[in-house]
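User: Can you fold this complex?
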Amino acid sequence: MRTQAFILAMAVLGLAGCANDPAPEEQMRLSEKALEQAKAVGATDQVESLKLAEDKLGRARTNMLTQDFRDARMRAEQAELDARLAEAQVLNVKSDEQLQLLQTRVKRLRKQLEVQP
Amino acid sequence: MIARKPLATLALLMLAAGLTGCASQRSASALDEATVAFQQVKDDSDVLRSAPRDVIRAGESLARAERLSTYIGSGSDVRHYAYLSQRYSQIAREHTKLALNQERLAKLDLERQRLQLALREAKLASVQQQGQWVESQIAALASEQGDRGLVLTLGDVLFDTGSADLRNSASRTVLKLVQFLQLNPRRVVRIEGYTDSTGTPEENLKLSRDRAQAVADMLADLGIDEKRLLVEGYGDQYPVEVNASERGRAQNRRVEIVFSDDKGKLAPAR
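Assistant: Here's the predicted assembly.
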């Protein structure tokens, strides 16, 4: 009888634990925004971290529907950072390209100045 | 039945212990990785300067993961915060690289402007010295060609045979072109390269494009916005003379500049 009561208490506690996690609405919004921003600067599925972000956010949305708020929050938090990393990576690829272009132009200008009489 | 029960319990316990063992091992390695990543950004003065907030967050998440790792059954939370910490460290690194790149870009752009100015002055000086500065408009050199509009032909004297490098004697015409384009900021040009029929079509196509690009590069170096310069190579197509004689071939080796009207509207490409 004592054991049964204990198990019951544990079960109630366990349930309460789940119910205590509030719906991470704000985090979902943040993560959606981070993903949008990464795509806006040109990140595609080719970028590994963006793919991760999309997958995790997708699963977080499902968790929201089934009210698994703890999983939803953790996945959304990871998705947000995955997306931010993707954004920074894409911006870096672009700035590398810009740098290379400018370096070529400066080199060309120097070469031309050398042949000037 | 009674004899078997303790055995089953033992097996269950072993299994449970095994599982926690695995889980904590995974958490420990996640924690290690995050710690290493954090150490690296924390000790990098560039990162501290460019992305201090990301570094702080990486540290906070790591501290949280470490605190949680002292509790039992918190494996997934430890891994979660270790993951977040590692991501923050990576983001800090990327942001730092971006900031350094921006600095270098700004410096290089100043350098480019300075060189551009120097080159323009050098060209102007050399042309003026030779007393060849002609204030006439480019229109005097160009001709109206029906539906293609205003076309200026640069002969093959501007290039050595087989080479796409502009000769220095090209400066005068090119400078006039620059002046004209600066006076008419809304006009754009299409720079079309042509060759004679010597050589393979592929080579000719490449050579014609390279020559047209060389003219475009020189215009860009002299300060014309690259957006106003379209480049096209036609190889040995559209000859203006038969390729049978040397004279005819020389006339076919050329770069043509097609001007838009003063509203920026170009005749369609061939």
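Residues 130-135 of chain B have pLDDT under 50 and may be disordered. The longest strand of chain B covers residues 189-194.
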